[in-house]
Design goal:
With 724 residues, the chain is of the alpha+beta class. The protein has 31 helices and 14 strands. This is OmpR/PhoB-type domain-containing protein.
Length: 724
């Protein structure tokens, strides 16, 4: 049977293989997305309605419009059809979609992608590249085999367990000693890091050639058992690590398990960190264990873990004041806590830490800790911090948090390739590391892969349910992608206590986006009751804006808001554009969009205000600059532009471009018409709602929001009084 393929401009489309190809680039499509494309190809140059796609592709009356919208959006992305005017798939409002092109249909036996290429299917793989690829694969296999041999075989610790004795010669101590010996054999026998044997009369310890041995003694002191254990070099008898344990007589079995688990943990650290037991002193081994334990606490973001980690390291620094690694680890822990809690006290402790050293005594790498503090206090630029971090790449090569920091900084610098490299290094060192997972999702969103980012966080939270940062990022992405009902149903089971303020803000915003202002007001009221006095003023003003109740008393009377963006926005909503512009000009004075910390959405509001107050020349100049700046930004997700370009085109009086941009946004899932910042629709649209073209699009959004409101009611079983 002949293979059917299509030629759409320079794209070759292979339905049976569910892929498209252009200039040697092969892109796979989801099966249903390919079916949509084929149907549009077979029905090109005529309008295909959503109902027709439902019946012929999904063969269902109940497929939601969101599913079809997503399929069209995916096709446009894959075909690079995302310009201001779509080249291939055009949206015909209230009617459907039009494939505005006459494709070629071919039913010859075209070559498989596994066969040599010809002139028709352009795969430019040359023999030279193939030989290079094979050589690289051979090298990679050799490296892997070498790593496998040396890491999984050569590095296994050969350990002899000597029988523990009762140093007080008591029968009960002897029982504990025998139990401990047996428990060590059992626990370590299940470890992949050690080959263990018991030292007894049937084994010639010299023939087995053990690397190390462990032994010790048990004695009773009053109501406690005390265990002294040592880990030593079998060849020289040098003690590498020793520790004393104690536990109550009645809980002696817990003590035995604790000793066995500690030794297992010790050997795991040696293996994971690649430590050289032959050259390490007892002090260096103790500090290595301390650092490892403190670092593991920080691998899942929680307040308690950070505090415990810092406490461990500060105690370690007092115990080992001359150690070079503990202060670096403490500096990293303090920076993590400072960022997590947004607490200046931790930054002050960072400054005190590196300030306690002079130039001669400062540990190698402490300049990076100093750079973290200086960048946070805005005394050095981002690129200087990145350069400092690069200087110590080798020193911090096995530190996952270092790589997560560098990923964050490269993200800020929009150097995404370097950011991705550091994210992968962090996750390789510590699979499931919370911060690295967070930045991986952020990077995916920046690249327009919002569903992949959501999947990354969902998978992570299945194993780390208490990670606050991941919860926030997931909820935020759902909201930013117009999936308000999903965000609500995710957040409602979460216990939103005072420390979960950011999650409650997202819940309030989601309710308002869905046009459930009463429920949004309830959440803002709870925030108001929990907030500190200064923050409560801003919340009270925002609450008044969304409820349209007591706005003058809530906003005008607050002196602390006089110079804030919120107060300027409030004046804009009142229609006092001159006063609003005066406030904005105080904030935007001497600022430039490309270098300021002000959000682009606020720059858009400022531009729109300029146009409303008669400064058309400056407004249009700024609008053109902002359009250039945001041209490559995604519509939805992290660092997205939303519909900023729509408002800017309105400033430029180009309604056709504004409509095209709005169509693009809606096709990608933008449903944020009723925005909490503005208490409803943005003022730029209020004069256009009566226009038929805008009204049609707003009606579509209202229908999509209505469907989502029903999903909230169905899933939660609550809030029925608010359903339409």
């Amino acid at each position: 049977m002949a293979n059917i393929s299509y030629l759409l401009d320079d794209w070759v489309i292979y339905p049976e293989k569910s892929l498209i190809e252009k200039d040697g680039e092969v892109i796979h499509l989801e099966p249903k997305v390919m079916e949509v494309l084929v149907y549009l190809l077979e029905n090109s140059n005529r309008v295909v309605s959503r109902e027709e796609l439902n019946e012929n592709v999904w063969q269902s009356r109940y497929t939601s419009d969101d599913v079809i919208t997503r399929a069209i959006s995916v096709l446009r992305k894959k075909l690079n059809d995302q310009g201001k005017v779509h080249q291939y798939i055009k949206t015909i409002p209230k009617h459907g979609y039009l494939l505005d092109y006459t494709p070629s249909r071919n039913e010859q036996d075209l070559p498989s992608l596994d066969e040599p290429a010809n002139d028709y299917v352009r795969f430019n793989v040359k023999k030279r590249n193939l030989f290079i690829l094979l050589a690289i694969m051979a090298i990679a296999i050799a490296v892997w085999l070498f790593a496998f041999k040396h890491n999984d075989v050569d590095r296994i610790v050969k350990l002899r367990v000597d029988n523990f004795s009762a140093s007080d010669e008591l029968g009960e101590s002897n029982l504990v000693a025998k139990s401990l010996t047996q428990q060590l054999i059992t626990t370590l026998g299940n470890s992949k890091h050690v080959q263990v044997s018991l030292n007894n009369e049937f084994i010639d310890s010299n023939a087995v050639n053990f690397d190390y041995f462990v032994g010790g003694a048990v004695r009773r002191i009053n109501n406690d058992f005390q265990v002294s254990m040592h880990f030593a070099d079998a060849r020289e008898g040098k003690v590498i690590w020793s520790q004393t344990f104690a536990g109550s007589v009645e809980d002696w079995h817990i003590l035995v398990n604790s000793v066995a688990n500690t030794l297992d943990y010790f050997i795991e650290v040696v293996d994971r960190e690649g430590l050289d037991l032959d050259t390490m002193s007892v002090e260096s081994m103790q500090t290595a264990l301390l650092i490892y334990q403190a670092r593991q606490l920080r691998m899942v973001s929680s307040q308690q873990n950070y505090l415990l980690s810092i406490q461990l390291l500060e105690n370690g620094l007092r115990t080992y004041p001359n150690d070079q690694k503990v202060p670096l680890e403490l500096g990293i822990a303090l920076y993590r806590a400072a960022s997590f809690f947004d607490n200046p006290d931790y930054f002050a402790r960072m400054e005190s830490l590196y300030g306690s050293y002079n130039q001669d005594t400062m540990p190698e790498g402490m300049a990076f800790i100093q750079g973290l503090y200086q960048y946070s206090s805005a005394t050095i630029p981002l690129q200087q911090l990145i350069n400092t971090g690069k200087q110590y790449a080798e020193l911090f090569a096995n530190q996952p948090e270092y790589h997560s920091f560098m990923a964050s900084f490269y993200l800020q610098a929009k150097q995404y390739e370097q950011a991705e490299s550091h994210v992968q290094k962090a996750l390789k060192l510590q699979p499931g590391f919370s911060v690295a997972t967070f930045y991986q999702a952020k990077l995916q969103s920046l690249m327009g892969q919002n569903q992949a980012a959501i999947d990354t966080l969902t998978t992570y939270l299945n194993f780390n349910r208490d990670d606050y940062s991941a919860k926030y990022m997931l909820a935020w992405l759902l909201v930013e992608n117009g999936r308000f009902s999903e965000a609500i149903n995710f957040l409602k089971p979460v216990e939103l206590e005072k420390e979960n303020r950011e999650l409650r803000v997202l819940l309030a915003q989601s309710y308002f986006y869905l046009q459930l202002p009463e429920l949004a007001s309830q959440q803002y009221q709870k925030l108001l009751n929990q907030a500190e006095p200064l923050a409560s003023r801003a919340i009270a003003c925002q609450l008044a804006i969304i409820t349209e109740v007591d706005t003058d008393s809530a906003c005008d009377a607050q002196d602390a808001l006089q110079d804030s963006m919120l107060y300027g926005r409030y004046q804009m909503l009142k229609g006092d554009y001159s006063k609003s512009l005066t406030i904005y000009q105080q904030i935007f004075a001497d600022q430039k969009p490309e270098s300021s910390q002000i959000r682009y959405s606020d720059w858009v509001d400022y531009t729109w205000l300029l146009a409303q107050t008669g400064d058309a020349v400056e407004a249009q100049q700024l609008a053109k600059q902002l359009l250039r700046d945001i041209a490559d930004q995604q519509r939805l997700g992290y660092g997205a532009k939303g519909i900023s370009d729509v408002i800017l085109w309105l400033v430029l009086d180009d309604n056709e471009q504004a409509l095209n941009a709005l169509d693009d946004a809606i096709a990608e899932g933008w449903l944020h018409l009723y925005t909490w910042q503005y208490g409803g629709i943005h003022p730029a649209f209020t004069g256009n709602v009566s226009r038929e073209k805008f009204a049609e699009r707003f009606t579509y959004i209202d229908q999509a929001l209505k469907r989502q409101r029903k999903q909230v009611v169905v899933i939660s079983g609550k809030d029925k009084r608010n359903s339409p």
